[in-house]
Amino acid sequence: MKNRLLLSICLLLLTGLVVGCSVSVDEEIKKVETAVEEAFTNKAIETNEKYEDFSYYMPTTMKIDSEEGNNNLIIKKGNQLFILFVNPNEEPNSKVMFESSGPESQDDLVVKTFEDQDRFGYIIVKELDKNLFEIVVGIGGVKMTTQTKASEILESAQQMMEIVASVRF
Predict the structure, then answer these.
(1) Signal peptide span per the entry (predicted)?
(2) What is the greatest pairwise CA distance in the chain?
(3) Helices 153-166 & 2-41, crossing angle to 10 degrees?
(4) Number of domains present in the structure of the chain
C-alpha cells in the first residue's frame, strides 16, 4: 500500500515537472513573438560594423567567427553560432527568403510575419529536439539563423531581429 502511494506521488511529481517545462516553452514562445515584433517596428539601432557592401549593428556580446563569401557572416556569442545572410538583390519587402526558409512544417512552433509600408519581416521557430530549437528571423533579403536551447529563445530572437533590422546597403 505504501509503495503504491509512493509510486503515485512520484508519478504526480514527474507529470508536474513535464507539464511545467512545456508551459515555460509555451510562455517563452508567446514572449518571443511580441519581442521580435517590437524589434521589427522600433527604429533600427545604429550600425557599428561594416562588411563588404553592407553595414549592420553588432551587440557587444557577439563577435565575428568567420566570413563566408560576400554575403554571409558567422557570428558567435559564447558557444552559440548565428548565420547572417544578406542578399542585396532582394528588396526589404521581398518574401523570397521567408518562403525559402520552409515555413509551415509540422516542427514549427512559431511562424509569424510582420509588415509595414516598406518591409516584410518574419520569425520561424522550429523544435529540433527536446531542448534544441532553430530560430530564423528576417526582413526582406536579410535573414539570421541560430540553434539554441529553450531558455535562450527570447534573447536570441530579439537580438537577431535587432541585427537584421539594422542592415544597411
Answers:
(1) 1-20
(2) 73
(3) 10
(4) 1
